[in-house]
Design goal:
four-stranded antiparallel sheet; mainly beta; Methylamine Dehydrogenase, Chain H
Amino acid sequence: MSLGRALIVGLAVTFLVGVIVFVAAAFLINRVLSARYGDDNYDLSVPPAVAASLVSPGPNKQESPAVDGQSVVWSEFIDGYWQIVHFDLATGFRRQLTDGPYDHIDPSIAAGWVVWWWGEPGGASWVGGWDLTQNRPLDLPTTRVIHPSVSASGVTWIDPDDALTPDGFPTLDGTVSYYDRTSGTVLALAHMRAANAPVGAGEYVVWQAMLGEDLDIYGTVLDGTEPFPIVVADGDQTAPDTDGHTIVWSDSPETSSLQPNPSGDIYGYDLDSRRKFVLSARNGDETGARVSGDWVVWQVRLGDRVSIYAYDMASEALVPLATGEGEGNGFPDISENTVVWVQSTPWQDRSAISQIALATLPVVQP
């Protein structure tokens, strides 16, 4: 072999070895990062200070938690039906608020009032409620409604239309309604296509609706102001929440949220500055955002796990709350620094017993 040929062969071998070493090193680094952060740079290491505990563990399935101060409510499957349960975190007192052969689901709680929707499985639904301060049922002037939500000032819900299209399908139209807790009056805020998921806080009410081909976020001020768009964009913007200062929602800019395997991001809107901003655009399907003050919580599906994260808008700190492999953690809610959610292991198993988990957020220094 000539000297030139030997030199070329030697360089080729050296280059090949270098490539192999580089690929191996990159693989090992990726494995290390994936073990801690997952495939999309979400930190999977839950700080000991925010370790979760179960609120009221038991043999029944628990779903749809909501929290306000020291009060937590949820739906629990008891004797064949979903019932509403209230738990006082300060005293440890647990109470079942509903009974009877009906399903009671998706409770909401604020300032001593609890509301939910109830009805026969697969049938029409109505609003139910309980006044914790007076220890009595609420008598709300509603008919057939869906998705009620309560705030310190009022109760919102959707009055769905009974109209059908020429093809015999529901029109999906509905009226966003608001009940004032002080005056007892009911306001019809807006009539829109596919109106859903209304929530109010302070002087604002926000909801999702469809005026074009996609779902977008709309809102109004409780002073007679005409409804106005919060965000209208490609894809679906769904499940808004507000604390009266900030609105958060899940944004699926490239694919409809109704399509298989959507990829949602979490966005926010400052009601004071009228400014839209991104809270999280990491990989994974990020949904279920809820806001309280500077804190925002949401769930994200990362491979075989569904995790809960909290984000402090003041310090920009992202805090993992529940990231166990194979776990299903979803439907978070937040009140000040208390977070609750549904925990189910394994999350793919529909027979798994889901329970309500709770974590207390740390004080984060800016």
